[in-house]
Amino acid sequence: MKKKVWLVCGMIGVLLLGGCGSKSESMNTMDRAPEAQFTNAASSGGKDEWYSFGSDIEEKPSSQEAGTVLYNTAEEKLIRTVTMRVQTKEFETLLSYLDGKISEVGGYIQYSQIYGGNADYSGYRSAELTVRVPQSSLDYFVSGVGENAAVVYKTENAENVTLQYADTETRLKALQIEQERFLELLEKAENIETILTLEKHLTELRYEIESYATRLRVYDNQVSYSTVNLSISEVKRTTPVEQDPSLFARMKEGFINTCYNVQEGAANFLVWLVTNFLYLLIWGAILAAAVLIVRKCIKKVVLKKAAGKETAISKTDEEQHDRMDTEK
Asked: Using the 8-state DSSP alphabet, how is residue 41 labeled?
């Protein structure tokens, strides 16, 4: 029985060393992947198409080094984000158009907020939207927004996560290979202590595998669906955007904007005044009553002081008369 136990332990040790060596070899292959990628492309004149991503990882012996894993740089993993600020005279029409366009391209609205209207004395509304659309339809969707609204600001950012994706995928594959070897050991194990030790390692491996798999799913979602951040403002007139305007054009546009702002400010003030007339009337009455009360209090204090002074003067006169009578 002791010989069997020692034999099983020896087999486990050999397989564990083999698993660690395989994992180390996978990591070395992963670290060499970018370098091998550029070396292979240079040696073949850019015609070698033996690169792949995702679950399509392939291995092809190279003329320089056999068994090197290479990745497809033709399919770069780009996370694209577009931020736009637009103006429109037809707020409801634009929102309806966006709903139809999002459904047409197979996207969805991740975040939406509409505010303004009755709570705003200007009567204009605004909206903040975060839209996710397939990357293949991003340019089509953005151009459609530009055709139906006045774009006053636009920026685009593309983050390349190709190497991060390849690194995560390689690590995941190495962990899955190690998990299979531990499962084979677990099937052959007969000692309870050995079984518990193997199950502990398998639990840790499953946690790492799930973590890397989740990271890959996040990358896939961010790459497949681009993000469009839309800020929509309802306006009475849109702001024209002119490339390299002249000095006279800038002065003219500034003067027109000033006149428009003064007009809109006066109109908004009039609306505010009429809307809050009752409040102003009530507060005016309260303020007038307070002023009257204060004035009465001040008048009483002044009269009281004046009366006190007259009393003091009369007493002084009587004392002087008494002194004069005494002297006589």
From this structure: H
More confident: 212 or 74: 212
> What is the end-to-end Cα distance of the chain in Å, rounded?
148
Choice among 7-11, 45-49, 84-88, 244-248 with the minimum mean pLDDT: 45-49
Of 198, 292, 227, the closest CA to residue 79 belongs to 227
User: Which sign does the torsion angle of CA 129, 133, 139, 141 carry?
Assistant: negative
| Amino acid letter, residue 78 | L
> The tokens of 47 are what?
């015609």
pTM of the model: 0.56
What backbone torsions phi and psi does residue 110 show, to the nearest 5 degrees?
-85, -35
pLDDT digits (tens, 9 = 90+) for 42-62: 333 333 333 333 333 333 333
- The Cα-based distances of 102 to 71, 145, 162, 189, 311 in angstroms read 33, 11, 27, 56, 91
Q: What is the dihedral of CA 314, 316, 317, 318, to 10 degrees?
A: 90
